[in-house]
Every structure is written in C-alpha cells, then in structure tokens.
Specification:
The complex is a heterodimer of chains A (650) and B (251).
Chain A (H helix, E strand, L loop, with lengths): L19 H8 L5 H4 L3 E5 L3 H13 L2 E5 L17 E2 L11 H11 L6 H21 L24 E2 L5 H19 L2 E4 L2 E9 L2 E9 L5 E5 L2 E4 L20 H8 L4 E2 L4 E7 L22 E5 L2 H8 L13 E2 L1 H5 L9 H13 L11 E4 L1 H7 L1 H19 L8 E10 L2 E2 L12 E3 L17 H21 L13 H20 L5 H15 L6 H21 L11 H25 L23 H4 L1 E6 L8 E6 L14
Parallel strand pairs in A: 1-2, 1-9, 2-5, 9-17
Antiparallel strand pairs in A: 3-4, 6-7, 7-8, 10-16, 10-18, 11-15, 12-13, 12-14, 14-15, 18-19
Chain B lengths: L3 E10 L8 E11 L4 H14 L22 E2 L2 E2 L21 E5 L8 E3 L2 E2 L2 H8 L21 H11 L6 H5 L6 H13 L1 H4 L2 H14 L10 H5 L7 H16 L1
Parallel strand pairs in B: 1-5
Antiparallel strand pairs in B: 1-2, 3-4, 3-5, 6-7
The chains are: A alpha+beta (650), B alpha+beta (251).
Chain lengths: 650, 251
C-alpha cells in the first residue's frame, strides 16, 4: 500500500487560531442528560488525564468504568511530577498571555506539534488552575494570600504554579478526590489491580477491553460505547527511566496492533537533572526537579586534569576554584542560561561528558551547584524552596547538597510520541480516544517543563468531556453490549494463548535481565545521540533480544494466579516491539528536532538542525501484521499562524 | 564509594488472606550499599527466579517516595529504621555486613494480606470516597486568585496534604487506628476556605466510614507521627477531633 491511499484527517476546525476551540464547542454535538445515563465509557488509567476524565464524565452523567494497575487510583505516576504546572494567568504581570504560552510551547516542541491543539491547551490552562484551587489543591502562596509562581525552562516569564516540590501529587490527589466523589455517587465504577491486555473492536468501533485481574490472574471482559486510553508513556522501554516500575506502554501498544496509528515514537525526552546511575542493580532513576535550575548553576571543570581527579575521587567539586569552572550553559546560551529547554540542557551535558569532563567515577555526571544561591539568598530560602528535593538527594546519594554540589545526569523521562489522535483526541479507531502522555498531540518533539501536568488535566477536565460527546451523540441508539459477542470471546482466547505461550517457554533468563539488555541497546543507540549506523544496529540487536525473550525467558508460578513475573513479561514483550518502532522512526527521521537528535544533522555549533522541507509532518505508523514492516503515513503540519524558525536560546 | 555486604533475610511469606504465613530465611550476598532497599529485594527475587522459585511479592511503584505504594515492616519499623522516608528511599548503607533483616507486611485488621508482603489498602479509598473532597464539578470556577488564602494556612494545608496514603500510620499503631490518615485529609480541606462549606459533614462521614471498616481508636500514643514517612503531624488529629466534636454538637 502506498502512503497516498490513506489520508490523515486531523479534523482541525476552521477559523482563526484563537477562535477554533470556541467554534468547535459552539457547533459540536452534545448528548442530553437522559441519554448520558445509558452510555458507558471505559477509561483506562487513573493519572491526571484518566482520573480527571473519569471524574468529569461521571459528573456529566455518563456511566464510567475506570481501570488502573495499582491498588488505588492515587498511585498513578503523575503523582511523582515535582516542579509545577504552567498556565497563562499572567498573575506576575510579566507579559504572559495565552498566545505567549502557546508560542513557547510550540517553539519548545521544535515546531513539530499542531498549532490548533497547542493553542487550545494554552486557552484552557487558566481554567485548570481555577478548578484545582476550587478542589482545595494547596498551591504555594505569597504572604498577601495570592498564588505564587516560579520560572521553568524554555520561558522568560514566571507562569508555573506549584505545591512545594510535590505539584503532581497535589494535582493528582485533587483529581482523585473528584473521582472518589463520583465513585461514591455510583457514576464511576473503579477496577483496581487490573491490567488492560487488549482492545475489543466490533464492526470497526472500539467497544471494550480485555483485562487481567492482577490478584487472581483471571481474564475479564468489559464492554462500553467508547474507550479512553490514558495510560501514560513508554519511557520504561529503556528499563532505566524516571518512570515508575509499573509504568508501561502495553495499552498503547495493544491499540496500535488493533489499528490505531502510533505517532512520532522516536520523540522521547531525556531529562537533564536526574541522579546518576550507581551500579548494575539500579532499578530506576530519580529525577531532581527542573525547578532546581532556577537557582542551581550547572558546571564541569575547565581543565581536563581536574575532571580526571574528580573521576578518581582525589578532588571534590567544592575544591575547584571559581575561575576553573565551566558554566557551560551560561557560556553557550547567555539569554536563557541554566533555564534552556530540557533537550538542549541534556545534550550539552552529554557533549561535556563525551569530551571527558564528567565529574563522578563513571565520568557520566555534571555538577548542579547551589553555593551561589546559598550565598545570595541564605540557606533558609534555599531550604524553603527545595528542601524536600535536597533531602531526597541526600537520602539517595549520602551527599549533602548544601555543602557539596549535586551531581546530575540526563535520563529518559517522558515520551512526546504516542497514539495518534485528531483534534477531538480520537484515534484512528472510531470510539477509541487517547489522552495525556499516552497520546502524541501537544508537545511536538520536545515538552517544556510543567507542561505535562497541564496537558493531562486539559485533556481530562476540559477537552475530552466535550469532544467525546461529538462521537457519543451518534451512539444513543446503541444498546449496551454483551461481552459474549464473538469479538470478545476471540480476544480473550488470543490473550490466553499468548499467556500460555509465555508460560510454556520455561527458559533460563529472567524478565528483568532481558529488559536490562534491551535498555542498554536503547540507551546506546536510540538515546541522546542517534546515528544511521547505530539505529540500524539497534534494529538488529532488538530482534536478537526478541528472539531470546520468546525462546529463553523463565516465568515461575501459575498464570491463573497472582504472578508478578508474568505481569513484567507481558509488558516486556510489548516494550521490545515499541523499542523497535522507536528505532525505526528515528532512522527514518533524517533530521534533528527536540528530543530526537541525529548526529548527522547538527549546526556547526552542535545545535539540532531540522529539515523542514522534508520532515514537517507527524510520522504515523500503521500496524500491518506480526513481523511485517509497519506502514508510514504522514500528517503534514501546516503552520498558518506561526513563523517557523530555528530554535534559539542564545 | 560503593561497597557490598552479605545479609540474612527473614521474609514473611503467605499465599493468601486466609492462608497461614511463615518466615522464610534467605542468604543474600554482594549487596551494594549504594542500592536501595527495594533494589536489594529485586536482587533477592532475581536469585529466587534463578533457583526457579516464585519471587517474594511486594507492592512498589514510583521508587521515589511519593506514590505510597511501597510498604514493608522492616526490623520492627514501618518503612525501616531511617527517618522521614519510605521503604523505596531506604538505602542499604543503613545496614551492616552480616546483619539479619526481618521483613513483614503491614499487620492490621484494616489491611488484609493479599500475598507475602502485599496488603489490601482499599479501605483508604473507601474513606476518601465517603467525603474526602470538595464537592465541585468541573468548570465554571471563580478565578484562582479570587479568594486570598493566608500563606501560613496554605502551608499548613500543604503539610497535611503531603500524606501519601501508604498506611504506615495504621501499621505503626497498636490499635490499628487510621486517625492520622483521616485527619490529614480533613485538616487539609478544613484549613482552606474552599473546604469549609462541607467541613462538618466531611469529618462525620469520614470518621463513620473509618469506624465501619474496622480501624481502631486513637489513644494518642503518637506512634503514627513518629513513623510517618512524610512527617504528617498529630496536631492534625487534634484538629479532626475539634471538627468532629463541633459537627456533632451542632447536630
């Protein structure tokens, strides 16, 4: 099939940029209250996007079924977001506006996001703050009682709202409380410790899911008029990431295999400020909030011999005199300094470490130094701002960041790519919607700090509850489904066969050891610096891992029982294939943009070099069958309202 | 600098809520002191899987001390011997070569064991569902700066809201009381003007649900506060008692 045969329709409404969302809402179809009660919606995931969507749909009167893999919806990994949430309130009177938030986001995304989606995101950002305050989210405040703001990377205004270093927690608990209220009312039914293993499509429409009950091992079927996926990103493909241990890409991968396009899988964000790897037993990487870059200064030694002494443990950071320090972000990017976007900061750290200036025993770390801030503001102020982060750092590393500069290194953090959705957040399968990090939509090739929380809540509170009605309005005559339909029986049979196949391998390697091997390949060849040769090698190596996995993995215990190794194995089977698609997408995208850096495409100064004439599109991958090459479809990005430029933070 | 230790583990193993449990002893060598406690558990499980045995089941997820999923009663302390952290933030440098470490699940009537070290904390969700929210629907809210909130009050509300719902307070309490958990949510919302409208009804509903689910009474031993990984203060319990009494007196 050629790429010309399927036309991608993003359903962007007509009209000027700032009026599109208003126009859409004015003309969309709605469902009347008595019909809402008769319509069932499955929401998979209870993070910011999933919980806010489930709660809001429940409030509207739909009958909602909400699933999560943890013991409680409050555990979803949105909870770990530290720094804050952006909104265009302009409370600081520093020149912010909806347009400026839109512009910063689209520029930060390296001009690879849809203008209309990003503008809508900026428009609803203010409603989110109002909503959260009304729920009792305890945002930080000034002495006068008004809300406080801080700055974040990629912006020249202070528009980030925060609750200590626990903003994600507080926003998620807000959404969780709204969700709990609907559970109490009976409009939302919660299904915890359930993992979605397949999507059921009936007559071309998403009509249900198959899940595994993680406590009993039983396979269960659920039917609905529409299905919403809000299951987060696939960063754990790399094994080591800042994601939670249970975060996985399986729900997204299952819907891809059922026909939903997977867009821009290669856009993965590497966060510059994580605690460096300590050894081979490492299970995950801990992020130190980007907000630290407000007051912390990033540096490595100027002299190679100093770096060598640091690596050998003969010298400590604070022993190196000021004139021998290279504050390389301030040197290279004087306008934004330590607050350049994440991708820029990560690559700059890699560049210094590759050149031999790394500061720890592995040579893979740079300093984040607070001594200036402590001298300028006093230890008390620094402690008030970052106390919990400093404590966390000290517990993990046994080093006191008030005395010694922190050591940080980039790590996989967030995936901008994901399931393709149109303006209505509907995937290419009718009746299947995708929200939050799981979709590809708003961050282009790179996400700005404090924008993930904004997008998750925008999708869940203020976008999906509108757009899904445009679909459900045509479903009011569809009666509830039986899960005895042949499509459900078939889907369950396939799942059981897959699980039996995994259990029967009885090989020699543990799931984690294979996952670690996959992670190393991903980090080396599909990580911060990608090359054609490396990506081709990755594709071969991933195939090797896949073969090893399906012939030599060992899963103890019983499938029809609580079985944590089986849970991990099912996820890893999908991670292997996701990794392959990431490499394939990265290989095809012969340019550098945002989180995707192809070493062949850089400016003489080492900055990302886009190829707008060739790659100004969303790369949408369509599944074509087991072990078949997927088909690439292109959604052209037409920038009608914004001038596309090379990103410049100098 | 990285070094490694050899340890003996006594781990509680139990097939299900009704099954009889027992301690199993495992020897674990070459544990890096830089690894976290749960990474040590990963190492144990890798060893068990290599011996073709079933791994020890325990809850964990974010591994950065915020999701509240990890639990574990380590050497008699919820979340282990170190202060102000969850089990996932505990590091092996807190233990010595040759140590024997005893690992148990949360033991409380309110949290039945599911398997090994994994317990069912669904009761906490039910308590929140009974009233741990401000009853507002999405949309149509006044501007976020419309109601000024004095910073000290906002900070107190934030301190109460930092509860991660892990259940260490219940596990630490000899009465199996959930008062610290309940009072944290009641306090957060009672301190803010947004939550005042329903403050009385909320306190009554959440306390009633807590009692109904079989959690014990509070006798002010303070064990919950001492073991709380997030330092949630028992002054919240005093506030809950005040809210509850006022609500009851008004009835």
């Amino acid at each position: 099939m050629s790429t010309e045969t399927i036309k991608i329709n993003s359903k962007i409404p007509e009209g000027p940029l700032a009026e599109k969302w208003t126009n859409y809402k004015a003309h969309q179809k709605l469902v009347n209250p008595s019909n809402k009660r008769r319509l069932d919606v499955i929401v998979v995931g209870t993070g910011l996007a999933g919980a806010s969507a489930a709660a809001t749909l429940g409030e509207l009167g739909f009958n909602v079924l909400n699933f999560c893999i943890q013991d409680s919806p409050r555990r979803a990994h949105s909870i770990a977001a530290q720094g804050g949430i952006n909104a265009a309130k302009n409370y600081q009177n520093d020149g912010d506006s909806v347009y400026r938030l839109y512009y910063d986001t689209i520029k930060g995304g390296d001009y690879r996001a849809r203008e209309a989606n990003v503008h809508r995101l900026a428009e609803v950002s203010n409603d989110i703050i109002d909503q959260c305050v009304a729920q009792g989210v305890p945002f930080a405040r000034e002495y006068g009682g008004s809300l406080a703001n801080r700055s974040f990377g990629g912006a020249q205004v202070s528009r980030t709202f925060y609750a200590k270093g626990q903003t994600g927690q507080q926003l998620l608990l807000g959404a969780y409380s709204a969700l709990s209220r609907q559970v109490q009312k009976g409009s939302v039914k919660l299904y915890t410790r359930r993992e979605m293993l397949d999507l059921v499509v009936v007559d071309g429409k998403a009509r249900g899911i198959i899940v595994r009950n993680l406590v009993t091992g039983k396979i269960e079927r659920y039917a609905a008029h529409a299905v919403v996926i809000g299951t987060g990103g696939y960063g754990n493909t790399f094994f080591l990431s800042t994601n939670a241990m249970g975060s996985n890409g399986s729900a997204a991968w299952q819907v891809y295999k059922k026909g939903a396009y997977f867009a821009n899988p290669c856009y993965a964000q590497i966060h510059p400020t994580c605690i460096p790897v300590h050894g081979s037993g490492q299970s995950k990487l801990t992020l130190m909030s980007e907000s630290l870059r407000n007051d912390g200064r990033i540096w490595v030694p100027k002299k190679l011999e100093d770096a060598k002494a640091l690596q050998a443990g003969k010298l400590r950071g604070r022993d190196i005199p000021e004139e021998d320090r290279d504050y390389y972000l301030e040197r290279r990017y004087p306008a934004f300094g330590n607050l350049v976007p994440r991708d820029v900061a990560s690559r700059a750290a890699k560049e210094r470490c590759d050149a031999g200036f790394g500061v720890n025993n592995t040579g893979l770390a740079v300093f984040l130094d607070f001594s200036d801030a402590i001298n300028r503001l006093g230890k008390d102020v620094v402690e008030a701002r970052y106390g919990n982060l400093f404590q966390m750092y000290e517990k993990i590393t046994d080093s006191n960041p008030y005395e010694e500069p922190m050591m940080i290194f980039p790590a996989i953090h967030y995936t901008m790519g994901g399931i393709w959705v149109d303006y209505e957040l509907q995937t290419s399968i009718p009746g299947l919607f995708c929200i939050g990090e799981a979709n590809f939509s708003d961050h282009g090739a790179n996400r700005l700090g404090a924008s993930a929380l904004m997008q998750g809540l925008a999708d869940g509170y203020f976008v999906l509850p509108y757009t899904i009605q445009n679909y459900l309005a045509d479903e009011i005559r569809t009666p509830r489904f039986s899960t005895e339909l042949p499509e459900f029986i078939e889907a369950e049979k396939n799942i059981n066969e897959r699980i039996e196949k995994l259990m029967s391998i009885q090989g020699k390697q543990s799931v984690d050891s294979l996952h670690k091997a996959l992670g190393l390949i991903m980090w080396d060849f599909v990580g911060m610096g990608r090359t054609e040769a490396g990506l081709k090698k990755a594709l071969v190596e991933i195939q090797r891992i896949k073969k090893e996995f399906w012939s030599d993995v060992f899963i103890p215990g019983d499938a029809k029982d609580l079985n944590t190794e089986l849970e991990k194995a099912l996820r890893l089977a999908d991670f292997i294939e996701i990794g392959e698609l990431m490499a394939r997408d990265a290989l095809h995208r012969e340019e550098s943009c945002g989180g995707h850096f192809r070493e062949e495409y850089q400016t003489p100064e080492g900055e990302a070099l886009r190829q707008d004439d060739k790659f100004m599109y969303v790369g949408c991958w369509k599944y074509t069958g087991e072990d078949q090459e997927p088909e690439l479809l292109k959604e052209e990005l037409n920038y009608e309202f914004t001038k596309v430029q090379q990103r410049n933070y100098k | 600098m990285e070094k490694s230790i050899n340890i003996t583990l006594k781990v509680w193993r139990q097939r299900g809520p009704k099954a009889k449990g027992a301690f199993e002893t495992y020897q674990l060598n070459n544990v890096s002191t830089d690894s976290s406690f749960l990474e040590m558990m990963d190492q144990l499980n890798e060893q068990l899987v290599a011996e073709r045995k079933e791994p020890v089941v325990f809850d964990h997820d974010c591994r950065e001390g915020i999701c509240g999923m990890c639990s574990l009663y380590i050497n008699g302390h919820p979340h282990g011997p170190d202060e102000d952290i969850t089990t996932c933030q505990l590091h092996m440098r807190k233990f010595k070569d040759g140590d024997t470490i005893t690992i148990e699940p949360w033991r409380s009537h309110g949290f039945p064991v599911i398997r090994d070290l994994m317990v069912d904390r669904g009761a906490f969700d039910k308590i929140i569902q009974a009233g741990g929210y401000v009853s507002v629907n999405t949309g149509g809210m006044p501007d976020a700066n419309a109601i000024p909130i004095p910073k000290p009050k906002a900070d107190l509300a934030m301190d109460a809201a930092s509860c991660i719902g892990c259940g260490a307070c219940v596990a630490a309490c000899k009465n199996g009381s959930a008062m610290l958990f309940v009072s944290a949510k009641v306090s957060q919302l009672a301190l803010l003007p947004q939550g005042r409208a329903e403050a009385a009804a909320r306190a009554k509903a959440m306390v009633a649900k807590m009692d109904e689910l079989g959690f014990g009474n509070c006798t002010n031993t303070g064990a919950c506060e001492a073991q709380c990984p997030k330092n949630v203060s028992i002054s919240n319990i005093a506030r809950l008692n005040r809210e509850y009494l006022c609500a009851k007196l008004a009835d």
